[in-house]
Design goal:
By secondary structure, the chain is α/β, with parallel strands linked by helices. It is 56% helix and 8% strand. The chain has helices spanning 3-18, 24-29, 41-44, 51-54, 56-64, 78-84, 88-95, 106-110, 114-124, 128-151, 171-191, 201-204, 221-237, 260-285; strands at 34-39, 67-70, 99-103, 156-160, 197-199. Helix 6 runs parallel beside helix 10 and helix 9 (114-124) runs parallel beside helix 14.
């Protein structure tokens, strides 16, 4: 683990807590740990009417007294994040970060012929294209961590697992994508011990569909609070925070987003589910007995 930076952040947190009993001057001298959020629309807070004030990253920062910087962009893939890290202003924020949260990977599937992937998974039970996207994610994610380490070798990197916000027939292809992203994250962690700390967001949001917004993609206000708690628990385990009880300075407001996108996907999924029986029937006719 990047012990030098972790010890530095622990000291900063301790100083901040100690300042409550000291003078105003002493409080101003304590430097709050810098918490930078990178990634996609999950990290941005899409799904909320008030993402700036109520996204999970803001809750984490408010709870632990961090200096908060969110440089996430809705729709970004791992390729986009690699390019974004080349932006001078983003790079400067990464350089001064003590803790970095990363949410990335879902759009590697959503922006990659999703209907075709659904057909393969539901009808053909073929996940070869999923595997290829997962391998590409692994390569890109490895590069993302390398770039962060080049800019700031001591930053603590928190990497979130990918959840499945779907039910019904659409759940199968989504789970296929999430499984490959999460397997790649776990593989990276196993092959590069100490480089990242995994925050299991998938597990944190698995208990109820109320954790997801109406669009069937993003976390709801409740979901953001649960991601914050999962992150705070990890930070507390690392001694980079003192509590997993979130400070909700601004209550999140769910954004009533159009269901058109996921509605169309669910329609495709239902049709593909019916086609799967036809496909299986004709496939069985051409299976030669042993």
């Amino acid at each position: 683990m990047k012990m030098k930076k972790i010890l530095s952040v622990i000291l900063s947190v301790t100083l901040l807590l100690g300042c409550f009993g000291l003078s105003v001057f002493a409080q101003e001298q304590a430097q709050a740990p810098v918490y930078v959020v990178l990634g996609d629309s999950i990290a941005y807070g899409s799904g909320l009417r008030n993402p700036v004030d109520a996204v999970y990253g803001k809750i984490v920062a408010d709870t632990n007294g961090y200096t908060y910087i969110n440089r996430s962009v809705p729709g970004h893939t791992t390729t986009n994040l690699i390019n974004r890290l080349a932006d001078a202003s983003v790079a400067e924020d990464v350089k001064k970060a003590d803790i970095i949260s990363v949410s990335i990977g879902g759009n590697d599937f959503l922006m990659n012929n999703l209907v075709g992937l659904m057909f393969d998974a539901i009808v053909k039970k073929d996940y070869s294209d999923f595997d290829a996207i997962g391998e590409n994610f692994y390569a890109n994610f490895s590069r993302i961590v390398d770039i962060i380490n080049e800019l700031n070798p001591d930053a603590v990197i928190l990497m979130q697992t990918l959840y499945n916000p779907q039910s019904g027939h659409l759940r199968t292809p989504y789970q296929g994508g999430a499984d490959r992203i999460n397997a790649a994250i776990e593989r990276y962690d196993a092959e590069n011990p100490g480089e990242i700390v995994i925050v299991d967001v998938a597990a944190a949001l698995s208990d109820t569909m109320d954790n997801f917004a109406d669009d069937g993609i993003h976390p709801s206000a409740l979901g953001n609070e649960k991601i914050a708690v999962a992150t705070l628990e990890v930070l507390q385990e690392l001694s980079l925070g003192t509590t997993a009880e979130p400070v909700i300075a601004t209550k999140g407001e769910d954004f009533e987003i159009s269901k058109l996108f996921t509605g169309m996907l669910n329609l495709y999924a239902g049709v593909f589910h019916v086609l799967s029986y036809v496909y299986d029937f004709f496939a069985s006719l051409f299976v030669m007995p042993l």
